[in-house]
């Protein structure tokens, strides 16, 4: 049979091998977790970049249409201003004459609603 010290020595060696296997398993697990985190970060970055690209595309479409709309509104406004200025210069003399004739041509008389109190 084996001596008691040899049995203890075998038990200690078995315990050391088990401890080494546990350490190795922990290291593999940590390595897999790090790898999974990196893959997740990469996937998140790809997703973020794709969504950001879609957003910028939509934003450029909207902003482009807004700028063309603002240009169109600006053109319409300038056209309306020119039209109003033309109308002003065309009718200014006529309206001024009518106004002066109405103000200066005073016809004295008794108002129709006036009642004399005696």
UniProtKB/TrEMBL annotation:
GO molecular function: ATP hydrolysis activity; proton-transporting ATPase activity, rotational mechanism
GO CC terms in record: synaptic vesicle membrane; vacuolar proton-transporting V-type ATPase, V1 domain
Entry coiled-coil feature ranges: 8-50
Record InterPro entries: V-ATPase_G
UniProt entry keywords in alphabetical sequence: Coiled coil, Hydrogen ion transport, Ion transport, Transport
Gene Ontology biological process terms, A to Z: synaptic vesicle lumen acidification
Pfam families attached to this UniProt entry: V-ATPase_G (PF03179)
Domain of life according to the entry: Eukaryota
Cited NCBIfam families: V_ATP_synt_G
Family: Belongs to the V-ATPase G subunit family.
Function, as annotated: Subunit of the V1 complex of vacuolar(H+)-ATPase (V-ATPase), a multisubunit enzyme composed of a peripheral complex (V1) that hydrolyzes ATP and a membrane integral complex (V0) that translocates protons. V-ATPase is responsible for acidifying and maintaining the pH of intracellular compartments and in some cell types, is targeted to the plasma membrane, where it is responsible for acidifying the extracellular environment.
PANTHER family on file: V-TYPE PROTON ATPASE SUBUNIT G 3, VACUOLAR ATP SYNTHASE SUBUNIT G
Quaternary structure and interacting proteins, as annotated: V-ATPase is a heteromultimeric enzyme made up of two complexes: the ATP-hydrolytic V1 complex and the proton translocation V0 complex. The V1 complex consists of three catalytic AB heterodimers that form a heterohexamer, three peripheral stalks each consisting of EG heterodimers, one central rotor including subunits D and F, and the regulatory subunits C and H. The proton translocation complex V0 consists of the proton transport subunit a, a ring of proteolipid subunits c9c'', rotary subunit d, subunits e and f, and the accessory subunits ATP6AP1/Ac45 and ATP6AP2/PRR.
Protein name: V-type proton ATPase subunit G
Species of provenance: Suricata suricatta
